[in-house]
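Backbones bend. We report:
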Amino acid sequence: MFDKFEKKTGVKMDEVFKLAQSLQGADFKDEKTIRKVIKKVSALANRPVSKQKEDMIVKAILDGNVPKDLSSIEKMMKKKK
């Protein structure tokens, strides 16, 4: 499973685990923390995030408009189809 993920994304699983570990205990009510996380994820995925998109993500997180668990994400994904 990890091999498929790495091939599809080009991201090494050890890097994903390092990122996840660094996020434990992160204060997602702090704008600076959120921006740092966005930059880390963007760099890890090798996908640039525009300032406008970064601002939208920060606002969504600060406003609580982000799914908190897997079932919420699944429901959100089903609505978009």
